[in-house]
Design brief:
Largest sheet of chain A: 4 strands, parallel
Strand order of the largest sheet of chain A: 4-3-5-6
Radius of gyration of chain A: 22 Å
Oligomer: homodimer
Mean pLDDT of chain A: 88
CATH architecture of the largest domain in chain A: 3-Layer(aba) Sandwich
Structural class of chain A: alpha/beta
Number of domains of chain A: 2
CATH class of the largest domain in chain A: Alpha Beta
Number of strands of chain A: 6
Order of helices and strands of chain A: HHHEEHEHEHEHEH
Shape of chain A: globular
CATH topology of the largest domain in chain A: Dna Topoisomerase Vi A Subunit, Chain: A, domain 2
Number of helices of chain A: 8
Chain lengths: ~210, ~210
């Protein structure tokens, strides 16, 4: 839609909003006009929350996740198991794993996966700092929790090679049929992999 | 999803973003983390575009659409037909009608429709200023282009009553089957209305 904006200020704000992923011009217009109807304080509070975050956000010295402090609350927590590191692509993935409430170890945020197509090489990722953490010696297990894609697999293999000289257990999260899914609708690669990686069954639902 | 945010600053920004219509917590997190990866200047430019718009946006003295000046470019344009006023709910609708390139008159932005359920009474809308424009005497036609809902119909009727004492032609935009739609999928009220309001056919596609 080629829209003639009645206001250059409006057009500028819509343009900025449209730069966000998944936000088209029409949605951007709706969001901006929504903010325009709000009080001055609400718009200022919205804008300030972003500039403050950008200005003051730190990254945890240990796991490189976002943090308000030098060490993030997870790495600073003595009740977490610091001998297990879960390697994830980004901060959202840390939150996703935390939400499962199934993990009590710590994390390492790579900042992406190796992807020659997108120009992401191993040097662009936080792999060196992961190796350093493992080399320090207190780590017993590294769990690779990357996307189940070619890029994720490549990154898994790269990390495997980098860590092979250390005495650390390396594991990868299970891939298989999603809970609640019907076999009939599962893709054959996943289904095949879930048969090859079948697990002992003791009569209880997992 | 009940997310534990690793950073209070991040949580605050996500909370602000989630207040926008149609933006849930998950999308808000994605958008905020996207902005976080951008340069300082880009984030500042994004935030500033909103506060500047909010601080400096004016509303056209004539049609009450958003404008950078006292009179908006449409109302200020001598080539537009100032004797026809198209009444719309909001600024988006002005842009939608403009995009059709079928209208050379001017507009009047009501700021909503009468909706007792949402607490919107006629006094909350820019109806008085519409009556004043008509009362001034140079207006020949008022086109009602409101939503085809009960609230839109109520507002149409309210405006009809308010303008009935003036010598002005009142019309409403045509309702019928959308162009490209199949009859089979049209709702029966629209289909019924499109039969009742059938138009003379001269052999040309409309």
């Amino acid at each position: 839609m080629n829209q003639e904006y009645p206001s250059a200020l409006l057009e500028k704000a819509v343009k900025e909003f449209s730069k966000l992923p998944g936000i088209g011009r029409k949605t951007a217009t709706r969001l901006v006009l929504h903010l325009l109807r709000k009080d001055d304080e609400e718009v200022t509070s919205f804008a300030d929350s972003l500039t403050t975050l950008k200005r003051e956000a730190r990254y945890c010295n240990e796991c490189l996740s976002i943090s308000d402090t030098e060490i993030c609350p997870i790495c600073a927590n003595p009740l977490r198991d610091h001998s297990i590191i879960c390697v994830v692509e980004n901060i959202q993935d840390v939150m996703a794993v935390e939400n499962t409430m199934q993990y009590r170890g710590v994390y390492h945020v790579l900042g992406g996966v190796i992807s020659p197509m997108d120009g992401v090489s191993p040097g662009d990722l936080n792999i060196g700092s992961l190796v350093n953490r493992v080399a320090a010696g207190d780590v017993k297990e590294v769990i690779l929790a990357l996307s189940s894609t070619m890029e994720g697999d490549t990154t898994n293999f790269y990390i495997y090679r980098k860590l092979s000289q250390y005495n650390v257990k390396l594991s990868v999260i299970a891939r298989g049929i999603s809970i609640g899914d019907e076999l009939e609708y599962a893709d054959e690669v996943t289904l095949g992999s879930s048969i090859v990686n079948r697990q002992p069954f003791n009569g209880k639902t997992i």
